[in-house]
């Protein structure tokens, strides 16, 4: 399976990431950075107390009280990058969608969670997960090792049991998941945040086929991807550093499933419901990121969606994605 972190960094990106932990992808780190930046806001959509610790550990420089976060690759906490301002709004804006989905799925009685490409996700600690919940975090050994080292300094607690599955998704992750204790006879809450855009359509189909093969009835799934491949003219660029990052991001975007979520998931036996990031941001009271400006012709759109492995009539009408977007 395609691994976005395996691509060589452009010079402008390498210049600001040369001291990052070996093997820990920039996408995982900038997602943590966005969550740290959001958590500092007075009107924060969520608070992730551990996100800043990942940033500080990666960069090796702590921010003083009231100071901006240290720069990390394209991420800048000083407002100087139009690209980062837009990316940060997107990464922070999608987080509550997944938070609501996970909390609701567990409230409905499910107790088995799998995060594919878990990265530096801390939902097992910051969300009120029910006792008896098992959370399988699947990512590369380097990412999970770095995460464990940082968490060990803070010793956060969780009502859930965390099981780390250290494997690249290009390898036999299903076998590794089973070996770690995953029970394919129990309904599963699948969380695949920020991954699908880095896959080609055949790779996305292979991933979904693997998920479907080990999902019991009652399993649910949440993910997102773009309506089309991103282009350089989608991206606001402030300087040469932004340009290097934009080139990396657009070249890494493989297009994902290539069709709308409802059609894609239906092929695999799931009933999907989606909403546009623009709707999500409006509900959160936040402006639309420039990346997703709807006034442009052929605007870039991010489809957030959930799906259920069940009959159409059994779909929970109170699920987090009650607004369905049927526009192309």
In quaternary terms, these chains amount to single chain
Distance between the termini: 27 Å
The CATH homology group name of the domain at 82-236 and 253-314: Vaccinia Virus protein VP39
Secondary structure class reads alpha/beta
Low-confidence segments, given as residue ranges, are: 1-18, 311-328
- Extended strand count: 7
Rg (CA only): 19 Å
Report the order of strands and helices.
HHHHEHEHEHEHEHHEHE
CATH-defined topology of the domain at 82-236 and 253-314: Rossmann fold
What is the CATH-assigned architecture of the domain at 82-236 and 253-314? 3-Layer(aba) Sandwich
Sequence of strands across the biggest β-sheet: 3-2-1-4-5-7-6
Largest sheet: 7 strands, mixed
Question: Care to describe what's here?
Answer:
This protein is of the alpha/beta class. It has a domain at 82-236 and 253-314: Vaccinia Virus protein VP39 (Rossmann fold, 3-Layer(aba) Sandwich). It has 11 helices and 7 strands. A 7-stranded mixed sheet has the order 3-2-1-4-5-7-6, with helices on both faces. The model is unreliable at 1-18 and 311-328 (pLDDT under 50). Exhibits S-adenosyl-L-methionine-dependent methyltransferase activity. Keywords: Methyltransferase, S-adenosyl-L-methionine, Transferase.
């Amino acid at each position: 399976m395609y691994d976005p972190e395996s691509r060589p960094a452009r010079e402008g990106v390498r210049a600001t990431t040369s001291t990052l932990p070996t093997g820990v992808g920039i996408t995982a780190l900038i997602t943590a950075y966005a969550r740290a930046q959001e958590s500092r806001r007075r009107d924060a959509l969520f608070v992730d107390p551990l996100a800043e610790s990942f940033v500080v550990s990666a960069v090796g420089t702590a921010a003083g009280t009231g100071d901006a976060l240290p720069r990390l690759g394209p991420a800048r906490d000083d407002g100087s990058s139009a690209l980062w301002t837009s990316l940060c709004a997107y990464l922070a804006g999608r987080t509550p969608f997944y938070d609501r989905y996970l909390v609701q799925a567990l409230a409905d009685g499910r107790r088995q969670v799998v995060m594919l490409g878990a990265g530096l996700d801390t939902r097992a600690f910051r969300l009120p997960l029910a006792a008896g919940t098992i959370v399988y975090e699947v990512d590369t050994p380097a990412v999970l090792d770095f995460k464990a080292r940082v968490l060990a300094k803070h010793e956060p607690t969780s009502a859930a049991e965390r099981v780390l599955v250290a494997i690249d998704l290009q390898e036999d992750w299903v076998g590794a998941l089973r070996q770690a204790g995953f029970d394919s006879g129990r309904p599963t809450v699948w969380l695949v945040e920020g991954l699908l855009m880095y896959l080609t359509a055949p790779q996305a189909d292979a991933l979904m086929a693997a998920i479907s093969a080990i999902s019991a009835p009652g399993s649910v799934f949440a993910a997102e991807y773009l309506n089309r491949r991103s282009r350089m003219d989608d991206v606001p660029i402030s300087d040469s550093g932004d340009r290097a990052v934009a080139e990396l991001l657009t070249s890494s975007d493989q297009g994902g499933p290539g069709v709308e979520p409802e059609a894609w998931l239906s092929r695999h036996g799931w009933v999907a419901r989606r909403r546009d990031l623009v709707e999500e941001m409006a509900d959160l009271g936040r402006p639309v990121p420039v990346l997703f400006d709807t006034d442009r012709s052929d605007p870039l759109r991010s489809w957030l969606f959930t799906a259920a492995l069940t009959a159409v009539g059994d779909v929970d009408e109170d699920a987090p994605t009650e607004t369905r977007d049927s526009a192309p």
